[in-house]
Amino acid sequence: MKKLVAALAAAAALYSFSASAQDYPTQPITIVVPFSAGGPTDTVTRLIAEPMGKALGQSIVIQNVTGAGGTVAAGQVAKAEADGYTVLMHHIGMSTAPTLYKNLPYNPLEDFATVGLVTEVPMTIIGRKDFEPNTLQELVDYAKANKEKVTYANAGIGAASHLCGMLFMEAIDTQLTTVPYQGTGPALTDLVGGQVDFMCDQTTNTTGQIKGGQVKAYAVTTGERLASLPDLPTTTEAGLDMQVSVWHGLYVPAGTPDDVVQKLTAALQTALKDQNVIDRFAELGTTPVAQERATPEAHTETLSSQTELWKPIIEAAGVSAN
């Protein structure tokens, strides 16, 4: 009798869980952003949140949880209930964290289910307005000749600007003095103010300063020129073998029901076709990913391949956050 009662109870619980997954969502959804409000990841998240919420029939709340290059937020989501109500938006840092952080409290490939990629943001190499080099080749030559005094700003270990800087130094086979900041904002402020020489950061951060003439722009780190910055050459055009973009994607805790993930993926795909999202992304120098990349399968493949790509680069640079 006890076994029958237990079996019935288990069946009832399974039915209840299945039914709740089918009804999802019945309450607001929280998207956790690992960086400060106003930053590029936060901006991308807020742009897609409204159309995603409309598609799901629920409001979406943005929660900024900063610290340790995004690992604090990711760790929080990894431990959240796997019910689809806590979602993580993260960028390329999900693929670099396992190498940068030796005591990482989660495994990006095991402790999360992927929802889909959102966008790949190009990066630009920029310098202070009065920096001596005027072209990318001149910058490379100047950096090699003056490596002891040239300063490269970044937004901290694991930030996109930090990763781009490592790639740049590897590409020119020269180690430069890096100046880490607590975020892109203060790094850009000091660059505009002339306290540091140059940096590499996402177009979502730099397009305004480039168009406003506040900084000197050298190149965009993509294979093709950008419609938003048509006069800016690519790194390849300028003779530097270096390409990098900052991809963003949505995650939920591992174990989240497949049909819940599917609903989130469908809402994401709807949001990426929203004209306001397309227009605002264009203003920021980026575009939504193609629909076939806004899927769990494409997202997982990107996360896995990028983790393998960055591992030897980070290890060769001897960089570690803990």
UniProtKB/TrEMBL annotation:
Domain of life: Bacteria
The keyword Nucleotide-binding appears for this protein: no
Signal peptide span: 1-21
UniProt entry keywords in alphabetical sequence: Signal
Recorded family membership: Belongs to the UPF0065 (bug) family.
Protein name: Exported protein, putative
Organism in which the protein naturally occurs: Mesorhizobium alhagi CCNWXJ12-2
